UniProtKB/TrEMBL annotation, chains A, B:
This is Peptidase M24. Residues 17-161 form the Creatinase N-terminal domain. It comes from the Bacteria. InterPro entries: Creatin/AminoP/Spt16_N, Creatinase/aminopeptidase-like, Creatinase_N, Pept_M24, Peptidase_M24B. Residues 169-369 form the Peptidase M24 domain.
Length: 388, 388
């Protein structure tokens, strides 16, 4: 196990994130940001708990035009929030279906509403409203004069570019994932129920130092898999299977997200060819991932190699994405995404193709973009389909 | 490892769930249900994947007044959805920020809007809007005449009462959790960094047969912990620590949710007393959990014992909740919840109290309510605080 970085972040990191947000808020005429989701609340506060798994209680963080954010949270989280840099923590005894934070929020936002001000919330692509819609409607209905703006692009522009400390965490979990995949040939074998391989993989990732393995999907079928998002079945691995495992493991709240492909006993020619094409598509993606290029450029660099074997483009919708506090983050390597790649973005390269009779293959690596090009965070996949 | 039940459900189970929903929809004048979240989509379709971890793509399931549900989903999920009982699967290549399913939904809902019909969505307590709010506003704005009703109570009434097959899965994962906790004294020890105990617990749960351990929180401090939702620190366990571990482990998409308390080396008198009070509060909850009682009754049965030591009621907000496809589900054992307990509800009993200088203790067991009272799904906690 390699030495782990320090957990958490110094207060200066949260102060810098908040100040950057406040600069953009001033430019865009926002009188506050109201954040509701686990990653957004954690990004500005450092509040880190798996308790978000419970859908029962809403949590709110308000970023004012100046000064520290204000937390409006269930009392059960007060002790943990007091350990962050947040000073102004307002709580209620939740759950309280009649008033789950609404009157506290109304009190906070009323002065802004009174002067016809504007609050930004996340309502754009890749977001969700992490509170009851009925409560949201009641909140807004009780604040006549309040304007709501979409703050998705603002928050996205901050979160897409990682700090040195974030990159250190991401590099650490990518290393753990790489060492876990390196062990797969030791614990995967013909006759093994696929679900047992999943359990063995999770156990190995924990042994290698992962905090958790919240995401593990895969496929295993004769001559190639047809699906890339399934949980495992009890079907035993057979000679001639192509096996794919794709993990989102975490360390200190940061994800790796990559996969590896293996053949059991023997590899068929078509799968070997698909593997080679995707390996070279990934190389093209690595070469294209430089500051100033767009996500569309990255997409096209990979797609031009994929087209050797599959001109249709597949049905995955994109060939990679941002990576950080979530398994998938903005941007998308897709024809629709003109986002300009910047130094210190952490990205996945995830070329895929359809082949044979309804088969699909996916490769994936994780990179950080530096001034002079991409650095791999993952140990590069073998250039030829490994046979177990 | 005990023999696992069969994975998945027969088609008849989904048909029965759908028909029950449709009966209630007819009574309430609903022309359809539009479902957006992982558990709601899975409940009516059987669509089961960890891919929901990625926030990028919305997923939609529409329950019509008669017949099978209709899936409107990203193409990447089509192969997996085709393995369920759903026949009508409409897909688009997602992500597509300009039209992430909105035109497909508009096409589906236009006839209902045209006749001034009503569609139910989940907008009440313990729900979230699992799609971009901007897209939702655009969808509704494009369907003049469409009425939106809150379907939370409808879906809640179905999901709160479990089928025999669901109870079998819940019993299986509660058994796995119980056997894992039984091993804690074997792998927990003084000097062990708390985060290493978390890793050891996860590994043991997997060994015992859990598919995953998506939720594991705890506390470990001298003479009692002060927080019950934290991730672990690297602090080594010390003699005199009171340690609590609370897990939501899963099998085939169903959760256990319970905790256990331990003392390291020695237990202080106050913590032993808190443990005894909570153990007896749980007994009172078990005795009170009968069909016809309300969640308020359950709350009061436990609270009357807790009051021996803590009259304030603590800050957790409730003393247990429903359990199933989510770590926490409706109802809540709280003064505000008059839900009548029914046969085949699966519930947690989770009494807690504050004591000493800012300490808190929590106990938790999982039960299924039968005609003649509660059956434990978890192996009952020891009546006295175990010392490791």
């Amino acid at each position: 196990m390699s030495k782990a970085p320090v957990r958490g972040f110094p207060e200066a990191e949260f102060a810098a994130r908040t100040q950057k947000a406040q600069t953009l808020m001033a430019q865009q005429g926002l009188d506050g940001l109201l954040l509701l989701t686990e990653p957004d609340v954690r990004y500005f506060s450092g509040f880190h708990t798996l308790f978000w798994q419970s859908p029962t209680r809403p949590w709110f963080l308000f970023v004012p035009p100046a000064g520290k954010p204000v937390a409006i949270i269930p009392e059960i989280g007060a002790d943990l929030m007091r350990r962050t840099w947040i000073g102004d923590i307002r709580t209620w005894s939740a759950p309280a279906p009649e008033d789950d934070g609404i009157s506290l929020l109304t009190e906070l936002l009323s002065p802004i509403a009174g002067r016809g001000g504007t609050v930004g919330i996340m309502k754009g692509h890749e977001t969700a409203l992490r509170m009851p819609l009925g409560d949201f409607e009641r909140l807004i209905g009780g604040l006549p004069g309040l304007n709501i703006a979409d703050a998705t692009l603002l928050v996205r522009s901050l979160r897409m570019v990682k700090s040195a400390a974030e990159i250190e965490k991401l590099s650490h979990i990518c290393g753990i994932g790489s060492r876990t995949f390196a062990q797969v040939p030791q614990f995967a074998h013909e006759g093994q129920p696929f679900e047992d391989l999943f359990r063995a993989f999770r156990r190995e990732a924990l042994t290698q130092g992962a905090d958790d393995v919240p995401y593990l999907v895969g496929g295993a079928e004769q001559g190639g898999y047809s699906d890339v998002i399934s949980p495992p079945t009890g079907r035993p691995l057979q000679a001639g299977d192509i096996v794919m495992l794709d993990t989102g493991s975490t360390w200190d709240g940061y994800f790796c997200d990559f996969d590896r492909n293996f053949a059991i006993g023997r590899a068929d020619d078509l799968s070997r060819r698909a593997y080679d094409v995707l390996w070279r598509a990934t190389e093209a993606g690595i070469a294209a991932a430089r500051p100033g290029a767009t996500c569309r450029d990255l997409f096209q660099a990979m797609q031009s190699v994929i087209a050797e074997m599959d001109g249709q483009g597949g049905d995955v919708g994109r060939l990679g994405h941002g990576l950080g506090m979530q398994l998938t983050e903005w941007p998308s390597h897709a024809a629709f995404d003109g986002t300009v790649i910047e130094e210190n973005m952490v990205l996945t390269l995830e070329p895929s193709l359809g082949y044979g009779d309804g088969k699909i293959m996916v490769h994936e690596e994780n990179i950080v973009v530096r001034a002079d090009g991409a650095d791999l965070l993952t140990t590069r996949a073998a250039p030829e389909l490994p046979v177990i």
